[in-house]
Amino acid sequence: MTSRGAKIAMFLATLVAALTGLSALFPVHAGAASPESASQRSSSAIDGRVVIIGVPGLLWSDIGKKETPALWGLTAQGSAASLSVRTTRVSTCPTDGWLTVSAGQRSRLPHGDCALPAAPLLAGQDSPAGPVPAGGAVAPGWPAIKSDNADTNYHAQIGLLGDAVQRAGGCTLAVGPGAVFGLGNGGGRVDRYVPSPDRVTAADWAACPLAAVEVDDLFRAYLNAGVDPQGAQVPLSKPARAAAVAAADRRVGQVMTGLPDGTTVLLAGLSDIGVDPHLRVAIAKGGAGGDTTYEPGFMTSGATRQDGLVTLTDVTATTLKLLGLPQPKQAVGSVWRPEPSADTTAERVEALEDQDVAAQGIRTVQTSFYWVLFATQLVLYGIAALALRRLGGDRSSRARILGGTRVIALLGGAAPGASFLAGLLPWWRAEHPTPVLICTVLGFAGLLTGLALVGPWRRSLFAPGLVITGITAAVLALDVMTGSNLQLNTLMGYTALIAGRFYGFGNQAFSLFAVASILTAAWLSEYPLRAGRRWLALGIVVLIGAFAVAVDGLPAWGSDFGGVLAMVPAFAVLGLMVMGRRVSPLTLVPFALAGAALVLLISYLNSRSANPTHLGRFWRDLMDGEAWGVVTRKFDAMVNSLGYWPYTLAIAAAVVFLFFVLARPTRWRVSLLQRAYEHSVTMRPALISALTVGVVGMLVNDSGVVILSVSLSLATPLMLAAGVRSLEIDLRNEDSAPPEPPGSRPASTGSPSAERR
């Protein structure tokens, strides 16, 4: 007989071997640059010429063929995308945007209001950063700005772009005050400064390989409009905005006519206006050849992996690439990559405008969705409790109550998956998008519930839930394996406005996928377990677990660090319980270590790729001794998540309804889960494993309580549906049982029901 420790080792070895065998999916490059090689190339000569045009607040809806001919022509000749400008605040101000370009990392102006960048210090004026070069300028307050950003969670290195250019022997030209903040070196200095585009000469344009131009007409119009007595922005009329955009277009035209041949233009609407964030304009024209030749079409980047979507931090990475300079690890963005398209200019502009419409539509309802989801489930728990207390009376009434409760519970379990399927339809284009979105989610939830109850499996205790979890897990897996299209601008996914993620699994989606995968594996293993084939049941758990961890953790797909740490021990719990083994915290230590080793292996392999994700960057931080800062930042965020009281309230309600029932099945005279346990051998392992992934996921992810609350939003309704079905089975067995002889009392054997479909 194989010892318990040996079996655990066999299970662990099988899981790790299956996952490490997938390492071929990593785009590993033997010649990938290391930090040392990048440092050695820091003195590379500049090969290229770039101008960055910043137009704070510019939207794709502002651009028209007649209204903005210069911007329209630039779009027609170049590659275009929507630009996520999120920095350290919900709404990005112009100086924040320029500082982000300077550092290649999210940056901010400390203690500053959202005004135009301050005028620079010129030659002859006192500067705390040192003498101002003749013809150049220094950004005011630079030492304080640099120190403040170094101390934020992002540890932005202000002046990185300017330093890189000057170390390579080049100079920088700033046109307008904001451009000084964008191109200032470590001391805040630029080599040449011109106040406005109309004063730049041909000699100025030709002098330096890197120039930045501030076009602030649109933002200035909003400042001139002022605020009301309550401090809210006074709305700018459509004619006034159109006039401001036209003025900005004329300045862009001045820049384009003065540039030397061979100059690559990067135009960015690099900040928001007011309190509402938007996706802004990004255009690139020209290029250095190869994958940086910007011709008519769209753009993407490794930071987003989304068609027609790039980020503000990408501007720095793209500029360095176009100049032939290495990208320091402190610059976290990715190079803008062109995507040729046969679409007309009008079609491209319309498609990019549509992206912002979708982002605005989801922004207005995403928070409300969680309120509605959790509130609805709280009501469901209450209805179920009342219904179960009123099961007296005739059997037909009891059957109707149980049947109705089961359908509602299945509908609640289908809602999270349906929220992603809603992304298949362009609901945001409707005149009233919110009601259309609600109806779409309810429609898909109803469809999933119908599939769960339409076949012969509807009589089963667990099979209807298996249909819902299987479809949910399959949809999420297929989505991240094909580009994460359903994750973006989705109720339980992420948005480009928040810019926490653009591809792979966000924390809510990971939680939903992990629980759906665990429940699917548990309930599928029920069939071989009934036949006494435990090793086959274990094989199902290992196979699904290996696939789920690969989908979640591989950088090409889910790219999720904390998810691997949570899923490996959770599937280990399920595997051990399926094999009839006792689970203790000590038992899980090897599996927790295996999860850590696996995610480090993934991080190492990804760090060697040409375009590493946050996984690869974590390995580099680990090698440089800087990983502890990442860990503490995520831990602090996890602790702070306890203040998200809507999620905490949802967890508390679910725990009261579910966890204490699990721990003490008869303590409160509630035998719902106990009856489900008696009808299904995998119901208890499924629930314990789902709770494990939720709790561990909460502890190792920065979203904290959000992870557990989303886990329970799927597991609790489906467990309720299974428990209600167990009472339905008992009720039907009572109807079919022969009358008992007077005076007889049934023996309590505690054996499972004969019906375990």
Would you mind describing this structure in some detail?
The chain has 757 residues and is α/β, with parallel strands linked by helices. It is 54% helix and 7% strand. It contains 26 helices and 14 strands. Helix 15 (463-481) packs across helix 16 (507-524) and helix 23 (645-663) runs parallel beside helix 26 (705-736). The radius of gyration is 30 Å and the shape is elongated. The two termini are 32 Å apart. The model is unreliable at 1-43, 661-670 and 742-757 (pLDDT under 50).
Subunit arrangement of the protein = single chain
Helix content: 40-55%
Number of strands: 14
- Helix/strand/pairing class, anyone? alpha/beta
Number of helical elements:
26
Quote the average pLDDT: 84
Low-confidence spans: pLDDT under 50, at least 5 residues? 1-43, 661-670, 742-757
Rg estimate, integer Å = 30 Å
**Overall morphology:** elongated
* Separation of the first and last Cα atoms: 32 Å
Tell me the strand percentage band. 5-15%
Major sheet size, sense and barrel closure? 11 strands, mixed
Question: What are the defining features of this structure?
Answer:
11-stranded mixed β-sheet; elongated; 3-stranded antiparallel β-sheet; disordered N terminus; 14 strands; 757 residues; alpha/beta; disordered C terminus; 7% strand
Describe the structure concisely for a colleague:
The protein is an alpha/beta fold and 757 residues long.
Break the fold down into its secondary structure elements and pairings:
Elements (H helix, E strand, L loop, with lengths): L3 H17 L14 H6 L9 E5 L14 H9 L1 E6 L9 H10 L17 E2 L14 E2 L3 H9 L9 H8 L4 E4 L1 H7 L5 E2 L1 E3 L7 H6 L2 E5 L2 H9 L12 H21 L5 E5 L10 E9 L5 E2 L2 E4 L8 E3 L2 H9 L14 E4 L4 H45 L5 H27 L11 H22 L8 H19 L25 H18 L1 H5 L3 H20 L7 H18 L6 H23 L6 H10 L3 H14 L4 H19 L8 H8 L3 H18 L4 H32 L21
Parallel strand pairs: 1-8, 1-9, 2-12, 2-13, 5-7, 5-8
Antiparallel strand pairs: 2-10, 3-4, 4-6, 9-10, 10-11, 12-14
